[in-house]
Design goal:
Elements lengths: L2 H10 L9 H11 L6 H4 L2 H4 L1 H8 L6 E5 L5 H10 L4 E7 L4 H4 L3 H4 L7 E6 L8 E7 L13 H10 E12 L18 H10 L3 E6 L13 H4 L5 E7 L1
Parallel strand pairs: 1-2, 1-4, 2-3, 4-5
Antiparallel strand pairs: 5-7, 6-7
Helix pairs in contact: 1-2, 2-5, 2-6
Keywords: Methyltransferase, Signal, Transferase
GO molecular function: methyltransferase activity
Organism: Novosphingobium sediminicola
Length: 239
């Protein structure tokens, strides 16, 4: 398949209602079609809709991004390519993260194709410069695990952003009004609670997208049983 056809296919994964500068749209499409993405990532695109998330967040070349808890790097690779060589992606993992979990990121951190990705270890994210975007997907609920509080992480995100910067939060939705009841057992969280917590931290709510909504998910199952078919919320805040 030619690169032109790959980019055309990637554009089709992007939200039709999102207005982007042509350069932004092309950068996102090229990131989706990039040859350095593993097939295991590409195969999940239909469910995770990365083009729509990148577009909603306003990702563009030259951006400085901080990604919280990158997991296996699915979005790290996309962010790296979309911001390009003049941009940078700081990925945060907590101090004391077991070596085997950090090793999951070696295919990115040791690959010259992702030279603009930098690992930041610490109690909270503290990149060496202010960033344009803080990004976290499918893991905000983890900040509540075993009675913990997300307040330090939200405060660190606010401090790391430039004025006017964006905080993008997406996660698996729990039943409305459930608060933190399902964060440990089901790995879900009530989106209204997330909104309240992030606004309390000093952010302004800037909008939400239904790109990852799934009405067929009744919010009673563990997210691991549904893989990429959970009902997910997608929220945007600004500093």
């Amino acid at each position: 398949m030619s690169k032109a056809w790959m980019i055309a296919g990637a554009l089709a994964l992007m939200a039709p209602g999102v207005v982007l500068a042509q350069g932004n749209k092309a950068a996102i499409a090229a990131a989706l079609a990039d040859k350095d993405r593993p097939e295991a990532d590409v195969s999940r695109d239909a469910g995770r809709k990365p083009g729509e998330l990148l577009a909603f967040a306003g990702v563009k070349p030259g951006m400085k991004v901080g990604e919280l808890l990158p997991g296996g790097g699915y979005f790290t690779r996309l962010l790296s390519k979309a911001v390009g060589p003049k941009g940078v992606v700081y990925i945060w993992m907590p101090a004391g993260t077991p070596p085997d979990r950090l090793a999951r990121l070696d295919p990115i951190l040791k690959n010259p194709a992702f030279a603009n990705v930098k690992l930041v270890l610490g109690e909270q994210i503290a990149p060496p410069e202010k960033v344009d975007l803080i990004w976290t997907t499918q893991n905000y609920h983890d900040l509540h695990h075993t009675g913990k509080s997300p307040e330090p992480t939200n405060a660190a995100a606010l401090a790391a952003l430039k004025p006017g910067g964006t905080y993008l939060v997406s996660d698996h939705a729990a039943k409305s009004g459930s608060g933190t009841t399902d964060t440990d057992a089901l790995h879900r969280i009530d989106p209204e609670l997330v909104k309240a917590e992030v606004v309390k931290a000093g952010f302004k709510f800037a909008g939400e997208s239904k790109a990852l909504a799934n009405a067929e998910d009744d919010h009673t199952k563990k997210v691991f049983d549904l893989h990429d078919k959970t009902d997910q919320f997608l929220l945007k805040f600004t500093r």
